[in-house]
Structures are given as structure tokens and as C-alpha cells.
Amino acid sequence: xxxxxxxxxxxxxxxxxxxxxxxxxxxxxxxxxxxxxxxxxxxxxxxxxxxxxxxxxxxxxxxxxxxxxxxxxxxxxxxxxxxxxxxxxxxxxxxxxxxxxxxxxxxxxxxxxxxxxxxxxxxxxxxxxxxxxxxxxxxxxxxxxxxxxxxxxxxxxxxxxxxxxxxxxxxxxxxxxxxxxxxxxxxxxxxxxxxxxxxxxxxxxxxxxxxxxxxxxxxxxxxxxxxxxxxxxxxxxxxxxxxxxxxxxxxxxxxxxxxxxxxxxxxxxxxxxxxxxxxxxxxxxxxxxxxxxxxxxxxxxxxxxxxxxxxxxxxxxxxxxxxxxxxxxxxxxxxxxxxxxxxxxxxxxxxxxxxxxxxxxxxxxxxxxxxxxxxxxxxxxxxxxxxxxxxxxxxxxxxxxxxxxxxxxxxxxxxxxxxxxxxxxxxxxxxxxxxxxxxxxxxxxxxxxxxxxxxxxxxxxxxxxxxxxxxxxxxxxxxxxxxxxxxxxxxxxxxxxxxxxxxxxxxxxxxxxxxxxxxxxxxxxxxxxxxxxxxxxxxxxxxxxxxxxxxxxxxxxxxxxxxxxxxxxxxxxxxxxxxxxxxxxxxxxxxxxxxxxxxxxxxxxxxxxxxxxxxxxxxxxxxxxxxxxxxxxxxxxxxxxxxxxxxxxxxxxxxxxxxxxxxxxxxxxxxxxxxxxxxxxxxxxxxxxxxxxxxxxxxxxxxxxxxxxxxxxxxxxxxxxxxxxxxxxxxxxxxxxxxxxxxxxxxxxxxxxxxxxxxxxxxxxxxxxxxxxxxxxxxxxxxxxxxxxxxxxxxxxxxxxxxxxxxxxxxxxxxxxxxxxxxxxxxxxxxxxxxxxxxxxxxxxxxxxxxxxxxxxxxxxxxxxxxxxxxxxxxxxxxxxxxxxxxxxxxxxxxxxxxxxxxxxxxxxxxxxxxxxxxxxxxxxxxxxxxxxxxxxxxxxxxxxxxxxxxxxxxxxxxxxxxxxxxxxxxxxxxxxxxxxxxxxxxxxxxxxxxxxxxxxxxxxxxxxxxxxxxxxxxxxxxxxxxxxxxxxxxxxxxxxxxxxxxxxxxxxxxxxxxxxxxxxxxxxxxxxxxxxxxxxxxxxxxxxxxxxxxxxxxxxxxxxxxxxxxxxxxxxxxxxxxxxxxx
Length: 1128
Description:
The chain is mainly β. Helix content is about 5%, strand content about 55%. The strands form 7 sheets. It has a 24-stranded mixed sheet. The radius of gyration is 51 Å and the shape is elongated.
């Protein structure tokens, strides 16, 4: 072998000349030339490795397992205090101007060694402290201890760097300290294939990149002042692997602690290809005190993979484990960041484990963020089941027992690297195919507690991401506390994403306490939950349970929460002492959806107190059973609780106030034929002021949603009955009960709540009000109403003049009917209003005469059945006529018949409150008028079509429209009159040839018949109205007093008139939604009176008339007709 080394050295020297010697830094074998000729080094004094030209990258030290002076001390370099050194501090420094590379290669060189290290720092003398300083860049490369043999009683472990303080008494203690001044790299590969493994003890059968050992009162320390990079990987059977092992046992040294301190970035990577347990860092402190540190701005990174085999007794792939027992303490004060990633191809994994037992404590913090990823793919479903023990994939695991303590805080003080970047204090991602569970965080406390109780506290200051994805059971946070212990988990803001591919497996949050244990979860700034699970099955998203009758489990969700799972169970609290409180601090927007249960004296409090808060919830208190619990709901400030309509719900205390809305309508929508058979909501106590209940009714059947109040009620509340204006068959004479009480008839003082309608309710065509039984009995509309309980509240029809009060939209239908009627009334005009004085026609030559006129009329409605309204009609008429026959009577009177045609176009607009109906009327007609000297006769036949648009408002102010409502009308009118001249002290009929100038009186009579056709409409809110065809028969009779002054070729007459008019027939029926009829009685008599003027020449005629009427169903406030005739 020596000759081979010598030859290789020659090649290296040649390489120095050619510049190719850098190969030493890439790969080493047992043929590599080393500075120490592959022999162990025992260092007890300062040692400097000089710059050696053989090693351009730095000195190379090697060991191949041979030349060991002590078969049980097999370290390449062992640093110890000088032999027989006195107690006190001793410092040994190893330095070099360049890198020191330590190479261990044992392939093909079996040894009986039971230990193997690259660098060993060892002290065992009581009272002596060894400070080992490596003042050079260090690269440690260990490979392939193969076919190692050892006795059945022996143990075996391999370590890249080992620091060992072996104490012997409790009087004084040895200390071993290692200071790594510069960059250090450790690489262990394929270490140790055991020929015979008789001892499977974890601590004595392992491979570790860095091993820290203190026993029997010894103290160790490792201070890495520059970066540390450790990589351990093995493919051997049953070999446990650790990136770093921290093992401290034995009595405490007052004022002294075991210490590992990383002052720059440190990375530990482990890779296990076969069976065995894999740890990134295992830190254990038994009876003594231990600290793990890193500095601000640094990152401690732990990465582990396991790609083969599986253990049957728990996790086999750990990231960081902090373990204290027997009164020991473990404190991890990480001022920098901690990043852990563990991946197992066929086994369970855990990111970070905190374990404290037997009056011990694990404490610490991470200041710059904790990032944990754990992946596992176990499929054999062994282990713990519900107890969430070590066969699961878990991001964080906490276990305290025997009166121990865990107190750990995570935050992130680092600023975002880029603007808008999301910075998490805790990022916890788990993935697995484990049948037994994949969880972000699991906590157990109190197991084995005696008189002293365990206490676990874990806090995250800043945002948290919890993400879990698994083929089997999957969850976010699971905590169980027993035997009087207490556990407290608290977070600021939490983003949680739970994706379970078995639909009944997801379990985002579950807390369990038993035997006096107390478990508490506080999320201060809100929880947002996302999931792709279709259903959580019987499990709830958030669960709090107390078993065995004592203890407490509390979940407090403050801040803005978004937890929406409408297809499943949202909150479940079970057992006395279990509680879930949402937005207890108040003033935060909530978005919640799902079912809520309180079971066996448990409590759920939900506070919706902002305008944007939405709760889509079904609540169940198991009221009236032995399992009754408490669900308290607060709905305020415009928030909305929409009760899930799967089945009736129950609530213990409902505080609804200040515009908060409790919407119960979904239950009625889901069960339209049964919802009235049971209360939509049962309330033990109701309080608050200004809250709103949204409810639905079936007024056709006299049914409605019903709320039952058991113990007491107070405050003033509003009810928003959902608009059912399309409901057919509304019976306004049957009140509908909406609120009732358990004992209101015997103890009314317990139920002082009052209710008002949020706005007058629209049901079919009627307005409804809300009142208690006393108020309803006083209404003139109720029939056979016998309820005397003043604490019961009903929906009942509003009253107007002894009849049910129509809604604005229903009144708009009445305006439609009256507008058409008045349009026909205007069209049924007198002869003078249409054409002027027929006796002036003769002044024009024979031939065709055209005419045109304007009309403007204004009416007010005022009947008992009609809304107070105004109707304005404006339009024009135009026509053409000519004389068709003329003859002279015996008395010399010329009798002439005129025949003509005319057309009409008019607009009509009716308004009443918020309702307006605007129509356009088109008409045509034919007439025959006969001038018989002192007498005249006029006959008219006509057809018209009115097309109108309805524009109204609901009682709540929403728009209601119906466009293009058409109605036809056919009319015929006959009018006659006789002109009498004042002479000889009286009025006498005289022939036209002797009428001349003077005063005249003219009795008139007219009969007008109009057939109004059907009309129907449906508003955009669903109200359907129809007007059946009806007849109008108007009779008119009265006197016209006229003065006429005529000259040759012209005539002027002025007149006044008084007429009596009577409507004999018009009573249109307006039917809504096929069943409800509103009467519109236009019948009755009234007077019309007016003034007119007519001036005629041989070529034209001008005429006008102004008219007004007294009031009946309608009052004609004024009517103006003005026309002109021209001769062709």
C-alpha cells in the first residue's frame, strides 16, 4: 500500500506543475495521499497545519481504520486535554491557513471498533474544561465502514463530529467545548453495514453527523461561528441516522448548561434508504439543562428523506426533536429562522416534536419564522387511531406528562423580501397517505401527571399557514389534555387548508379534555379555512369535547373568520366545560356556514356584529333532552344569520339588534307544505332592540313561519315578511301567527318583547300589519279570532274604510281600470263638444268640411272603493263630414243630415301615491248628425284601444312595473235636443227661419253606452291582475241657456249649461292572482256645468267649451274642448 501512496504522491507533485491537483477536493479514496499517512491523530496541544504544496486546497487528513492504538477509540482526530492536566480550563487550537479536509475510508478494512468519529472532542476529568478550537475551514468526509463486527454486548455508533463530556461524580463536572471558527462541512455516506447487530438501542446504534454527549454531570458545548453544513446518508439495514445528536444525562451543574449555538446558517440533511429511524436533530436533556441557539439573521435548516422500509412502532422520520425528562430542561432560543422538511416514501414523519416528561420543561422561541414540511406515505394503518400518536404524519407534535412544561413561541420579525409578499411566522405543510392520520399540529398533555400538573403553551405571533393533504384521515389542530393538566395554543391569523380525499375524514380542529384536563385554543386575528373535501361526514370542522365529566375544552376564534362548509358540521361542542366562542372580542367580520351543535351542557357562542358578517347556520341545542347544551347567537349592526333550512333549529340566547337580520325563509322554501307544522326556530331567551326577523307565510292557507319563545323575551324587534305578492287565494280575514310563547297566558310579564313589521307587508294585493292578539281582536276584518294571549304576535290585513287595504301595486291596477273608463267618458262627448253648434253649419256652402279639436280634461278619484288619485287626459280629434240629405218641413224648417268620420289620439296619466299609469289611446268613429231647425239629433259609433304602462313601488320602495297593458272599448251614443226662443214672456219652439237673434234655452238628453274589454297584466314582482269586460251606461239630461247674435253671413253664440249625469252600470271587477277581487264602483249621479262659445262664418267655425263636475266616484276638475271647422 505504501508504494501505491508514494506513486500517487509523485503524480500529485506532477500535478502541481501542470495545475491539475485540485482533484483532491472532489473525491477521495484510500489511495489518496494524506498529511498524516492515514493514521489517527491524538491532539493535546495547539497544532498548526502549514501550507503544504502537496495540498493546494488545504491539508488533507485521513484515517482508514488501521493503526489504532486503542480499538475503542477510533477517531481520525481526537482532541483532549494533556494527560494528567490539572483541573481548570484547557484550550487546544487546531488551525491552518487553508482548509482542513478530514477523510475517513474503511472499505475493505474490517475493524472491531465500536465507535467511529471524524473529529472527537473528549473530556472526562472532574472539574476540567476542554476548549477545542478549529480555526480553519473544515471539510469532514466519512464513507463506508463496511462489514463491521462487534460483540453481542457491545454497541456501535458513528459520528462525523463528536463532543463528549463524560462525568464521573456529582462533586465537579467535566466540560467539553468545540468552537468552529470557520465554515464547516460534514458528509457521512454509507456508514456501517453491521455483520451482527445484537443491540438495537437507539443511542448506541446510530450514525450522526454531529454527536453531542454529556453524561453523569458532564457539560458539552458547540459554537459554530460560521456556516455548518451536515449531510448524513446511509443505505444500511437497521441503522438509525441523525444529522445531530444532542444527548445530555445526569446531574445538573449549577449555573451551567449544555449548549449548541449556531451563529451563521446551519444545515442538516439526512437520507435513509432502508429501515431505521431518521432524525435531523435529536436534542435530549435528562436531569440536566440544555440550550439550542441560533443568531438573528441566520437559518437552521433540517432536511430528511427516507426512501425504504418502515418501522412498526412509531415515527421513523423526525426533523427536530426537543426532549426533556427527569427534571431536565431543554431551551431552544432561536433568534433566527428554523426550516424543517421531512419526506418519507413508505413511513410516517414528524416535523418538530416537543416532549417533556417527569417534571421537566421544554421552552424556547423562533424569532424569524418556523417553516415545517412533513410528508409520509404509510399505508398499513397500525398504531394509535384516535390518540394521534406516532404512526401519523405530523408537522408539530407536543407531549407533556408527569408534571412537566412546554412553553414555545414562534414569530417572524423579518420584513417581506418584496412588496406584497406574505410573511408567515409559522408555515406548516403536511402531506400523507397514512391511514391513521396526517395533522399539522398534535398536542398531548397530562399523561402520567400526579400531584403536579403539566402545562403546555404554544404561541404564534404573526400569520400562520396550516396546510394538510392526505389520502386518509387529515386534520389541522388536534389537542388532548387529561389528569388536570392544561394546554394553551394561541395564534394570531391562521390560514388553514385541509384537503382530504376520503370525504368523511377531514378534521381541521379538535380539542379533547378528560379527567380535569384543560385545553384551550385562541386564534386572535381570524381563521380562514379552505378545503376540497365534499363532506366531513359526522365530524365537525371545529370540535371541542370534554370526556369523563370534568375539565374544559375551549376554542376562541376572534378576528375576521371565514369558515364556510354549508354541506357539513361546522361547530360541535360536547360535555360540560366544552366551549366554542366566535368573535367574542367583537367588531370583526365573520363568514360562517355549516351546522352548529351544543351537546351535554357544552356552549357555543357566535357573535355576528358587523354589517358584512354572514352566517349560514343551523343550530341545535338538543333542547328538552338530557343532552341539552347552549348555543348563543348575537346578530347586530346589519349582520345576517340565514338559518339553514334543513330542519327546524334551536338557540338558547338570541340577541338580535341594530339592524341585525335573522333570516328563516330557507326552511319554508325547502318544505313549502310542512314548514308551518313546527317552529322554524325555538328560542330560550330573546333580547335586543331593532333586530329583524325575515319570515315567509302562506296566507292562502292562513299559515306562516312560526318562532317559539320558551323562557323569556324583551326588546323591540322588526319582522320582514318576504314579499308574496304573487300569492293566489289570499284570505285577508285570517290572521297568521308568527311568534308565540311557552307560558305567555299565565306569566305575560316574562315576555315583554314587542314586534313591528319592518314595512307594511304585501301579501297578494293587500297590505298587512303585525300586532299582538289584543290588537288583532280590535281589527274589523278578523273572523272568529279567539286568542287572548297578548304575548302572541300575528300578521293581519290592514284596514281601509272597513275593507282590506290594497297595496300600491294593486291600486295601480285600479288606476288602470279607472283610466280606461275616464278615457271612454271623454270620448262619449256631446255634439257641441265635438263639432260646435250644428245650427251654424248652414252658413257654409255645401260640400266637405274638415274639423279638428283639442281636448284637455283632469279628474280626481274619490270613491269609497278607489284610491285617491288624479287623472289627466290630453288629446286631439279630427274629422271630415258633409251634408248627405236636406229637406224642408211644412213650417219652413230646413232639415239637414250630416255624416262624417273622425279619429282620436289621446294620452292619459293617472297617479296615486307611488303609482303611475300612463296610457295612449287611439280611436276611430262615425257619426250622423241631423239639424231639424229647433231640434237636433246626434248618433255616434266608435272604437278605441288604450295601451298603458304601470309604474309603482312596493311598500319597501322597490320598483314594480307592468308594460303594454291593452284594453279595447266599443261605444255608441245618442243625443237629442230642442231649441226654445224667449219671446212674449216665455220660451217657445219656433221654426229656424224665425229664430233670429236673442235668448234661447235648449233641453238636452244623451245616452252613451260603452263596452270595455278585458285587460290583464303581471308585474315584475309577480302580482297578476285582470279586469273583466264590463259595460258603462251614462245618461245625461239638462238645460243649455244661450244668447245668439247673428249677422248676414256670420253668427256668434255664447252659452252656459247645467246637466245631470248618471252612471247606471259601470262596476268593473279587478281580480288579483285569480282569486282576490277588488270592487270598483263607478255608479252614481253627479252634475256637470260649464260655459261655451261658437263663432261661425261662411268659411270656418270656431268653438270652445269649459266644463266641470261635482264629485261622485270621480270629479271632473275641468274639461276644455276647443275646435275649428273649415270648408273645402
